Amino acid sequence: VQLQASGGGLVQPGGSLSLSCAASGLTFGSYNMGWYRQAPGKQRELVAAIGSTGRTAYTDSVKGRFTIYRDNPKNTVHLQMNSLKPEDTAVYFCAADARYWEVLRGTDLNYWGQGTQVTVSS
């Protein structure tokens, strides 16, 4: 199983970025997906989750600014990030698990991708 994250970069405050995570080696439509982030000196946190049924969840700090969605035919999950703030700066990871509650918990997921750096700075 591989999860390949892409789309990170440097953006000014107020700007937008779109992250993508391409999955292979698993029955993508059956898996629940999550985006997580880890800033320097901080614990990893869940940013957004999307279940195999399409239900979504977001951490409070990104509600109204970030949108997670999935493209099952292309085995890809996306994270559209708008109105970015300096505090969104972190390494962003995608992950997959057969259990939706585990994606929400974020501690023992089946699969993790490599991270992509997002830096929000003027």
Concise structural overview:
With 122 residues, this protein is mostly beta strands. The chain has one helix spanning 100-105, and strands at 2-6, 9-11, 17-24, 32-38, 45-50, 56-58, 66-71, 76-81, 90-97, 111-112, 116-120.
Tags for this model:
globular; 4-stranded antiparallel β-sheet; 7-stranded mixed β-sheet; 11 strands
Can you describe what's shown?
- By secondary structure, the chain is mainly beta.
- The chain has one helix and eleven strands, in the order βββββββββαββ.
- Strand 5 and strand 6 form a beta hairpin.
- The mean pLDDT is 97.
What are the SSEs and their pairings?
Blueprint: E1 2-6, E2 9-11, E3 17-24, E4 32-38, E5 45-50, E6 56-58, E7 66-71, E8 76-81, E9 90-97, H1 100-105, E10 111-112, E11 116-120
Parallel strand pairs: 2-11
Antiparallel strand pairs: 1-3, 3-8, 4-5, 4-9, 5-6, 7-8, 9-10, 9-11
The amount of beta strand, in percent, is: over 45%
Task: Bin the helical content.
Answer: under 10%
What is the molecular shape? globular
Distance between the ends: 37 Å
Q: Structural class of the secondary elements?
A: mainly beta
- Unreliable runs: none
In DSSP terms (H or I, runs of 4 or more residues), the helix count works out at 1
Average pLDDT figure:
97
User: What's the order of the H and E elements?
Assistant: EEEEEEEEEHEE
Radius of gyration: 13 Å
| Main sheet: strands, sense, barrel | 7 strands, mixed
Care to count the β-strands? 11
